[in-house]
Amino acid sequence: MTFGEKLKKLRKDNALTQEELAERLYVTRTAVSKWELDKGFPAIDSLKAISELFGVSIDELISDQDVCNKRLIDERRSRRYYAAAVAFVALATLFTLLYYFLRNAYLAIGGVLGVVGYVVCALMSKPKYKRAEVKKMVLPYIISRVVILLFVVGLIIYTVFGMV
Fold this sequence. Notes:
Layout: H1 3-13, H2 18-25, H3 29-36, H4 44-54, H5 58-62, H6 67-102, H7 105-124, H8 128-136, H9 138-163
């Protein structure tokens, strides 16, 4: 896949016109058209901007690797982490409830391990290119992380103080 084909695919996948892409890159629409037709190549500053805008590395843009396949692999990996995160939440809940009813301290340890597993898997469950998009919206990103942190800390406190 050529650079022009990759650029066109990325632009269309993100529902951008050539004009909109040109505005974001501070270039003309004809420059974007030339790049997509492989009649020209952007300067390094434009390559950096394209890389940041679409969440791909410059190497991926100019190499022969297919960006689409890399995204599919990343999404599959993310779905596995998401499934694991859900399983860890279920285990943490199960162990916490079992501890509450049976008062066996070893079950509380299982609850804490479930929470730790959830945190790790939840952070890894978003594909890399979407993590870059989320970081552009800083306030919602921070709020969501604080809510998750409060939930996890609440579970840990309940589990630890429940052992006493």
